[in-house]
Amino acid sequence: MRKLVYYVGVTLDGRIAGPGGEYDFFPSGDEQQSAAYSNWTNALFPETVPTAYRAAIGLADAPNRHFDTVVMGLGAYRPALDAGITSPYAHLRQYVVSSTLKPDIDPAVTVVPDDPLALVRELKREGGAGLDVWLCGGGRLAGALLPEIDDLVIKNYPVVAGAGIPAFDGAFDPTVFDVAERTAFPNGVTLTHLTRR
């Protein structure tokens, strides 16, 4: 069965974005540190780079390594939409969970108005190339999908936001994950892969 993997950047106080959805305050280090970190994460997860930027960083023809499908909430979809991009991950099957978004926003995007748990359960049962489903945000959607999240890949940035969108925004539901692997970078970021116990 395919896995649902929440791959996301998080501040020290558990925020995936600021109060207005901003994420430009996440520190990336000096130019050399930033390039080394970006090159490493982009090589490991090339499919998480939006289609519009893939050619510029040498990933135009990079095959998907981990995911063939992305599920996101409206908040995670909004930055692309605001930039006039309706299909931000054209190299993946795209699902946006939103009760307010028009269903015909783009032929390559499936808008799911409700019941994200049913959607994810259906996606996980699919056969295929053995690639998983990427949950790219946001916090409310992650909270709703917590029962189905199999793995977490958390990029912890050395910054406190103080306020903003939490990584998980849902009911109190303590869920234990085990650390499978952790990598530290010179820019202060740690990338931790966790699996559900």
Automatic annotation (TrEMBL):
Gene3D superfamilies: Dihydrofolate Reductase, subunit A. Residues 3-189 form the Bacterial bifunctional deaminase-reductase C-terminal domain. It holds the Pfam family RibD_C. It comes from Streptomyces javensis. It comes from the Bacteria. This is Dihydrofolate reductase family protein.
